[in-house]
Amino acid sequence: MDHDALRDWSKRAADWAHAYHAGLRDRPVRAPLVPGTVAGALPAAAPEAPEPMAAIWADFERLVPGAMTHWQHPRFFAYFPANAAPASMLAEQLANAMAAQCMLWQTSPAASEMETVTVGWLRDALGLPDHFAGTIHDSATTATLAAVVTMRERALGHAGNAEGLAGGPRLRLYATAETHSSVDKAARVAGIGQANLVRVPTDADLAMDAGALAAAIAADRAAGLQPAGVILCAGGTSVGAFDRIGECVAVARAAGLPAHVDAAWAGSAMICPEFRALWAGVEGADSVVVNPHKWLGAQFDCTVQFIADPAPQIRALGLKPAYLATAGVSAVTDYNDWTIPLGRRFRALKLWFVLRAYGLEGLRARIRNHVAWAAGLAAELARLPGVEIVTPPVLGLFTFALAAGDGPTEALLARINDDGRVYLTPTRHRGRAVIRVSVGQFDCTRDDVMTVAAVVAGLLGRTG
Ligand SMILES: *Cc1c(COP(=O)(O)O)cnc(C)c1O
């Protein structure tokens, strides 16, 4: 295949994409498939001889779309959204066409400079103060790992990278049980160890108990352990828990510790000033992670980490061998020094396209709709006999269950997803099996959201 053929097939791909999106409402959201179906349909080895694109394309149409869970389906209410706005998809086509490695300013000046500018636009749009710089990572997992490695190096006087961790002090991290598993992963991968991730108790609102945080830090110090940093939750993945950021940042500050705020999902909502009370005090954090690839329409991968002072992170992660030195250029930002992988995609382009094509008002209107529709749906479900709202809506997220208990709730969820019109996922809350509803799909309508109540009512009616 050459670039002339690519032009023709790209047009066909654009038509295919248009038809795919137009037909999404007619597909079941989750693929009704048994494991092994796709693998079993593929040959055991790669072909020795080139195959015609028409054959590859036909197999794609035959094997793939029907075996996917459709994340862009307007009735996808599982996990969190992973929106791909059309303007973002267009930007990705252009980034793909150039296929640049955006590791250094020199390897991609437009990408580096656009990253600086769009991260600044987003910072201002979220109401974060302008002392925050930032960078774009592939995922919140990696951004949090970068923050935790920086915490480690700060705690060790930047000796960990050079000398390793053996024989050093036992480092401690603090977070509640509501934080995402990426915090556990960061504790593991950074060499701090899962056992040193201290689970600070939460109060009745699932928010970190700031007094308990202070006590845990003091107890660790008294025991000869070395606190390294605090990770705060602004919109937990299970049921949307928020720590009281200001109070906990103040405790971290007083103890001389950095604080990292995980707002991967909920951060996007902060483009609406009325939601900012949820993360009040965030301006005091050392870093904040927000995923525009969840709720803002810039498709995966696009995670922004805002950093109050990039110097410690650059010292922890920056590494410039001679073959990467840029001769004769100074005063440029090489973002590979801020992030873990060397190679970087041109992610700022889709953020730039999305922010311009929808405007902050367009994005705010979508998020406000999602929040209002989630509340409307919760009210509708609460009216059904035997249905209980277990955690009330936090932005677009709430959970419900059947009063009859875990077994019937789990059976109901299986039947909802087998029905195919909507897709919901489970979690546990205070030991109880609950069903999550996460509203935030870019193209959903109020009717799509209310379909959840119609499906549940229908299934409950049928059970009698
Ligand atoms: C989704 C999510 C993550 C993980 O995000 P990735 O970008 O997939 O790594 C982390 N924290 C929270 C709160 C999330 O919602």
Key words describing this protein structure:
binds pyridoxal-5'-phosphate; alpha/beta; globular; Aspartate Aminotransferase, domain 2; 464 residues; 4-stranded antiparallel beta sheet; Aspartate Aminotransferase, domain 1; 15 helices; 11 strands; 2 domains; 7-stranded mixed beta sheet
Strand order of the largest sheet: 1-7-6-5-4-2-3
- Report helical residue fraction: 40-55%
Low confidence ranges:
none
Helical segment count: 15
Mean pLDDT metric? 96
Radius of gyration: 24 Å
Biggest sheet, in brief? 7 strands, mixed
What is the total number of structural domains?
2
SS-based structural class? alpha/beta
Looking at the overall shape, the CATH architecture of the largest domain is: 3-Layer(aba) Sandwich
The rough form would be described as globular
> DSSP strand (E) fraction?
5-15%
Number of strands: 11
* SSE string, helices as H and strands as E: HHHHHEHHEHEHEHEEHEHHEEHEEH
Distance between the termini: 59 Å
- What's the level 1 CATH class of the largest domain? Alpha Beta
Named CATH topology of the largest domain: Aspartate Aminotransferase, domain 2
Secondary-structure topology with pairs:
Layout: H1 3-22, H2 37-41, H3 53-63, H4 86-98, H5 109-125, E1 133-137, H6 140-155, H7 160-163, E2 171-175, H8 181-189, E3 197-199, H9 210-222, E4 226-233, H10 245-254, E5 259-262, E6 287-290, H11 292-295, E7 303-307, H12 310-317, H13 348-382, E8 387-394, E9 397-402, H14 406-419, E10 425-429, E11 432-438, H15 446-463
Parallel strand pairs: 2-3, 2-4, 4-5, 5-6
Antiparallel strand pairs: 1-7, 6-7, 8-9, 9-11, 10-11
The protein binds pyridoxal-5'-phosphate (PLP).
Residues 80, 139-141, 180, 182, 235, 237, 262, 264-265, 291, 303 line the site of pyridoxal-5'-phosphate.
